[in-house]
Amino acid sequence: MDIKEIKAKLSILEVLQHYGLQPDKNDRLRCPFHPDKTPSLQVYPKTNTFCCFSSNCNAGTGDAIQFIELYEKCSKHEALVKAAQLAGGEVAKPQAPATLLIETDCLTKTAVLSKAFAIFKKALPLTKRAVDYLQSRSLDYKQDETGFINAGYHHELGKELTESLAKHGLLKIKPAGGYSAWAKDCIVFPLKNQEGKIVGS
Q1: Which of 11, 13, 54, 167 could form a disulfide with 40 if both were Cys (CB 3.0 to 4.6 A apart)?
Q2: What is the DSSP secondary structure assignment for residue 74, as one 8-state letter?
Q3: What is the CA radius of gyration of the chain?
């Protein structure tokens, strides 16, 4: 069972049920990744994704596999193995070891995300409304890892990096050509794995 097949067979609601978590009628629940008094984790059953909207949480947005990775505090490969089991199968074993393929893909993604976040972090102090908003929420961008996504940040980037950003969802291809920024004009926080590498935002 490959990653695409796992994602097609395993729903985010099945993952939540496995961990004894039950969303309310609005598909919200108290986030298990930070102390949460009111439901701040939104579940999207149609896209099998989740998003925590609390400024006190680094969970960010992710899919069923990323939820397992965060909840189990495990590696991406371990999360894939767990997800495959929940989906009723096993992780596919191609000619090369599965762990090697997954780690290679992860390294590529983390390298791109690290470059992107460096750009976002540099842009934040230059954006007054972003700094003002953070200060209003008692957040210090000089101490906390925070970035800001300018709508046209990608215009000055090289072709290879731009295509890599699009591949990993940080840029969206326009039907008429060109790209638009994912989460443009938004403040972002890096989501890191146990090794301290950025795996999402």
Answers
A1: 54
A2: -
A3: 18
Q: How far apart are CA 152 and CA 131, in angstroms?
A: 19
Tell me what pLDDT residue 105 has: 45
Quote the tokens at residue 136: 């209003």
Residue-level pLDDT at 41: 94
pLDDT in tens, 115-134: 888 888 888 888 888 888 88
**Would you tell me how many other CB atoms lie within 10 Å of the CB of residue 196?**
8
- Exposure string of 163-176, with b = 16+ CB inside 10 Å and e = fewer, is ebbeebebbeeeee
Residues paired with 198 in a beta bridge: 192
Which pairing describes strands 147-149 and 61-63: parallel, antiparallel, or unpaired? unpaired
What's the N-to-C CA distance of the chain in angstroms? Answer: 27
List of the chain residues with pLDDT < 50: 92-107
Structure tokens at 2: 């490959």
Residue 72's contacts (CB-CB under 8 Å, 6 or more residues apart) are 78, 79, 82
Q: What is the pLDDT of residues 74-108, one digit of tens each?
A: 988 888 889 988 988 655 444 444 433 333 344 47
Please report the DSSP string for 4-69 in residue order.
HHHHHH--HHHHHHHTT----TTSEE--TTS--SS--EEEETTTTEEEE--TT----EEEHHHHHH
Q: Using CA atoms, how far apart are residues 28 and 173, in angstroms rounded to an integer?
A: 31
